[in-house]
Amino acid sequence: MTLVLNKEDREERKKQLVQALALSDFSKVYKEADEIQRNHKQDIISIRAILEFSNYCKRQCIYCGLNCKNTKVVRYRMEPAEIIKESLKAKDAGYETIVLQSGEDLYYTAEMLGHIVKEVKKCGIVITLSCGERSFEEYAYLRSCGADRYLLKHETADPALYEYLHPCGTLEERTNCLRNLKKLGYETGSGFMIGLPNQTHETIAEDLLLLEDIGCDMAGIGPFISHPDTPLKHAENGSTEMTKRAVALARILLPNANLPATTSLGVIDNDEKNNLFSCGANVIMRKITPDTYKKYYEIYPSQLGQTDILKERRELETLISNLGKIPK
Ligand code: 5AD
Prior knowledge:
The chain is α/β, with parallel strands linked by helices. Helix content is 39%, strand content 14%. The chain contains 11 helices and 8 strands.
């Protein structure tokens, strides 16, 4: 059996996705997703560097440890020269893509970000920006400076849930940004969390269909992990299994998309069948944020080792090869 999604009828497709999410045995869908990954991505797992250059954020997202109401966070900002210097180290370690991520921090004007992009691009690395919502003009300017990709997750496709989680914004504003990015020729990345309060299989099906509506080139799907210093501190964590199911269905819906095994899914399980790359994911990110800052970029609680750009990349390459995939 393969999952043949009804191409014409969105409602029918939604029903099929809801049914698939609830299957008692999902193994055939995983197998299909893995086959599509092999056919469209040649079994390659792309390793990307991520530099978290500022943890200041003007937003109040109630699930995120960096929300501006959390006074326990030690805030930091890296200056442009330091961001450029650290980014160039990624290229030297063999990374072909770097993600420059921050909270929504207006300290960095479009001009500053544009300068950083231009300087880092000189070494030939692909740049993904992930700095939140900005105006069409700012996105256009950053694109003209050489930014190739932009990550801005929609987080949830349920407008009411979106507004509950984000006192500072609406789903419509978010999807407008995503459509603007797409219009400007960015490789556009969205994504969402699994296990948010009141989320149902219907919500997840809508999340998947929204990725399709936007025409996403990338989608990061990760479990919600509760952070003790946020309003959602008592909420339950999202399920790893459900996250992997959503990734597999995203692979079937968007065969060419870049789908990271998100950091929140945890370390790679070294088991051939259960590893994160058997559900259709084809990307993994490694933090290259300097140790002085890394511990303060706590979106959700996680265990962090010391940053060693070259060593960590080599270890990941070995791990991926051992799982029968090709690291790149
Ligand atoms: N659990 C899991 N993921 C989270 N994010 C933010 N807070 C959490 C959390 N508590 C994710 C969001 C955001 C990305 C940077 O991190 O999806 O887009």
